[in-house]
Task: structure prediction
Amino acid sequence: MRSIENRLKELGIELPTPPPVANYLGTKRSGDLLFVSGRKSELIGLVGGDISENDAYRAARQTVITMLSIIKADIGDLDLIISIVKLQGFIRSAPHFTRQPYVFDGATEVLIEIFGENGRHARTATGVNQLPFGAALQFDVIIRLKRL
Result:
């Protein structure tokens, strides 16, 4: 099996330097599950208002890539990931906007590109009124890891 690092290179995806976290853990392991704290997008505003669906889709993709950089920094090796179990997303939406699943596909599709069938996951895409610091998107994820 190809390593995840090689797969990222094939896809032309570079993991950014992991951003700092505040007074919480970026990840927390419990048995073979890794719970990844919520990560907001850099995109600010209302999806379906001042932010287009396509821009939000791209921000969803980038936010998950940033989450992978945090995961790698915490566990050391992305090849320890067996599968993506559940991805939960919050989309700061204009009142009339109902296409949250489309925006969320930006996150889902990049995980499948990277991890193949092991990237398929259960998910929840929820429209919300507000997110921290006015962010357009926020995600958290549960991952199954190899036992150490």
